[in-house]
Write a structure and sequence with these properties.
Strand order of the largest sheet of chain B: 1-2
Radius of gyration of chain A: 26 Å
Helix content of chain A: over 70%
Largest sheet of chain B: 2 strands, antiparallel
Largest sheet of chain A: none
Strand content of chain A: under 5%
Order of helices and strands of chain B: HHHHHHHHHEEHHHHHHHH
Number of strands of chain A: 0
Number of helices of chain B: 17
Order of helices and strands of chain A: HHHHHHHHHHHHHHHHH
Distance between the termini of chain A: 33 Å
Largest interface: A-B, 120 and 111 residues
Oligomer: heterodimer
Strand content of chain B: under 5%
Number of helices of chain A: 17
């Protein structure tokens, strides 16, 4: 890019490179641009083709799916795979995922912003200690919590219950951190005015500050939605009751169970497709929040 | 409202010192009492959930890792015995199936990390620098395309890859089209290094050299240690690189937008070509981001679980076992809770150790690189025409900001 913007005014700096000079820097920039497009198109195919195959296969007949796995045309076209899915426990898994995701998301939005606000604005004794604790929690690799989580759920008699799926996910340290950072950027004068009017701390938080936090709240909502919809390990250790299986666990059992072998690929592709659609829709409409949240969450360390 | 927005700390100071009709002393005590109460009430739910489902469980698991709990009843019941470090010994020093399983999982994960982390970092950086071209149209489309797998469920993607890499799946069909015979990916336990060495004539994979096959290190033969990732594991490697590259690409894109254009242009005016200016100007500026991406990569790759759980369950021939999955299956399938908890803690220590080592290495290199560049810049300056400072800037200032912003 720098070549294109500066080169016309530049008095032939590349004296040692006659080839470049003869062709002209404009051509070079075009060549680079062309190569860039070529690279991007190749990578796009690598990134999109698997999803296209998935969509096409879910509308194929099992035999056609294995006969020509590369084809993006379902011929004959059939929705049999989706109908088969409705005869399995798939609708139950879907319902469980919806319930868990809604409750977890609502909980995270509320509790994360409460804690984030307190850590950013309320000057209470022990605030630094609480914040350090949240940071320490952020550093714990999630996967080593598999056994510990089961132990505590089992001990509390929560194993194999709905609360076991939901309660441990209600708060996440990264979300607290994002909200704290946001609240620190809100001008304090707003709260001050409300305080003079005699509003209490919770009232100021709820009706004055929270409405200003819309962008941060959307970010938290989306990250929580995506995180709990895609969560697998926690649900594995929180229950083994088939009635409490969510989509991730259910679809995983679908491919390792009797449907995984043989030529039942249209069904597993359809299942994966249906479970991807909600996140895909949210992603398309709220992409910028994803990006912001993703990088903000990552740079917390 | 106020005209200037004061920072939080300053307003807090103003707030407490403001005169008050009720009287300054009473009010400030009442206020701070109220603030204490409100603060603790606000953080209470968070502390409760994190404490009960994170801190307490870790303590419980520490106890289980030094106990002989069998999974029945409470781990704190009187019948559960303290066994000291026995469970850790079974993983690390005692000969047996447990140790060879654990060592196999470590070997697999080491190869996995060694491939995934560099590949995803390089691809992410490459895609980001291609996308950073200002003349490029449809940037948003490409960015979305590469990022989409990162937000998609790992289960859904694993299911797709099971189909793509099945015996007669899309990948093998495509390979056949160019005259290659693809393996039966998920059933192929051959190690890539074994296969490559065999192909180069270094050894016969069917009859491994005795020197390697007969030397045993920590329960595995040297031949097994040097297997490389199996064909099945390389599918998981490809999947993960494909999935995570997009996230890291976004981080690199954000960092690239902060690279000062003038410095880059100055380097180009000075006669540096694209690659040289990338290496001398852009890369040093990206150093903190590279550090971040590699750190996150190491933390993430040592925790690989979902893909193994969905696709291979550790097979074929345990070549896709990872410590995380092994710990899970020892606990929930074999009811060997003590050993499984010990595995989790060893895994935790590995992650902590590796990230600290990696941070230390990077930091040291930063300083060394800075010294080297200062030296080079001085040498160049003495040999250069007067009035031309571009490369001096590139040589000294940029690494300083790069290293200092961490």
């Amino acid at each position: 890019m720098s070549t294109a913007t500066t080169s016309p005014a530049r008095p032939a700096p590349a004296a040692g490179r006659p080839a470049t000079r003869r062709r002209g820097p404009g051509n070079r920039a075009l060549l680079v641009l062309f190569l860039g497009y070529a690279v991007l198109v190749v990578f796009s195919v690598v990134y999109l083709y698997p999803f296209l195959i998935q969509v096409a296969t879910s509308f194929k007949e099992p035999a056609a799916a294995t006969r020509d796995p590369l084809s993006l045309v379902a011929d004959p076209f059939t929705t049999a795979a989706f109908q088969r899915l409705t005869e399995t426990r798939f609708p139950l898994w879907f319902a469980n995922s919806v319930v868990v995701t809604l409750v977890v998301t609502a909980g995270r939005v509320f509790f994360n912003s409460l804690a984030g606000y307190a850590l950013a604005r309320i000057r209470f004794r022990g605030r630094e200690a609480v914040f350090s604790a949240v940071l320490a929690v952020l550093a714990v690799p999630g996967i080593i919590l598999l056994i510990p989580k089961f132990l505590v759920l089992n001990q509390l008699g929560m194993y194999n219950t709905y609360p076991a799926l939901v309660v441990p996910l209600l708060v996440d340290a990264a979300g607290v951190f994002i909200m704290k950072q946001f609240f620190e950027s809100v001008p304090a004068s707003v709260e001050e005015a409300a305080r003079i009017d005699g509003a209490g701390t919770f009232r100021i938080f709820w009706s004055v500050v929270l409405p200003m936090a819309r962008p941060a709240l959307i970010t938290i909502t989306i990250l929580s939605f995506q995180g709990s919809w895609n969560e697998l390990p926690h649900f594995i250790v929180a229950s083994n009751d088939p009635d409490l299986a969510t989509l991730t666990k259910g679809v995983a059992s679908l491919v390792s169970g009797q449907l995984g072998s043989g030529n039942q690929y249209p069904i597993s592709m359809a299942a994966a497709l249906v479970m991807t659609i909600p996140v895909a829709l949210v992603f398309v409409f709220f992409q910028r929040y994803f990006v912001r949240g993703g990088t903000a969450g990552a740079e917390k360390g | 409202m106020s005209v200037v927005r004061p920072p939080a700390e300053a307003t807090a100071a103003v707030r407490t010192s403001r005169p008050d009709p009720v009287g300054p002393a009473r009010r400030s005590r009442g206020r701070s009492g109220e603030q204490n109460l409100a603060g603790w009430l606000f953080v209470a739910p968070t502390l409760l959930v994190l404490g009960v489902f994170l801190v307490v469980p870790i303590v419980m698991a520490l106890w289980v890792s030094v106990s002989d709990w069998s999974g029945r009843g409470s781990p704190f019941a009187g019948t559960v015995g303290f066994v000291g470090l026995d469970n850790y010994a079974r993983l690390l020093t005692e000969e047996g199936l447990t140790r060879s399983d654990f060592m196999t999982s470590l070997r697999n994960n080491v190869y996995y990390v060694l491939l995934v982390v560099p590949l995803q970092t390089v691809f992410a950086l490459f895609l980001a620098s291609v996308l950073n071209n200002q003349l490029l149209k449809a940037k948003g489309f490409f960015r979305t395309t590469f990022y989409f797998p990162s937000v998609t469920s790992s289960v859904a993607i694993s299911v797709i890859f099971l189909f793509l890499f099945s015996g007669s799946g899309a990948v093998n069909t495509a390979l056949r089209a160019v005259g290659l015979d693809g393996p039966t990916w998920f059933n192929d336990a051959r190690g890539l290094l074994h296969v490559i060495g065999d192909g180069l004539g270094l050894w016969d994979a069917a009859a491994p050299p005795a020197a390697l096959a007969d030397t045993s290190v920590l329960g595995l033969s040297a031949w097994q240690w040097l297997a490389g990732p199996s064909v099945a594991l390389s599918v998981i490697i490809m999947l993960v690189v494909w999935t995570t590259t997009g996230t890291f690409m976004l981080m690199f894109l954000a960092a690239l937008q902060d690279v000062p254009l003038e410095v880059e242009e100055a380097a180009r005016v000075d006669g540096a070509n694209r690659w040289q200016s990338f290496r001398a100007v852009t890369l040093p500026h990206l150093r903190p981001t590279v550090l971040l991406v590699v750190t996150l990569g190491i933390i993430g790759t040592w925790q690989v679980f979902d893909q193994v759980y969905v696709m291979t369950q550790g097979g074929p021939s345990k070549t896709t076992l990872t410590p995380a999955y092994l710990s899970y299956s020892y606990a929930f399938e074999n009811q060997q809770w003590g050993v499984a908890a010990a595995m989790a803690f060893v895994l935790f220590l590995i992650i902590v150790a590796l990230t600290s080592v990696q941070r230390w290495v990077f930091r040291d290199k930063d300083a060394a690189q800075l010294r080297r560049q200062v030296r080079q810049a001085e040498k160049r300056r003495s040999a250069r025409r007067p009035g031309d400072d571009a490369l001096a800037v590139a040589g000294t200032d940029v690494p300083t900001t790069g290293g200092g912003s961490r």
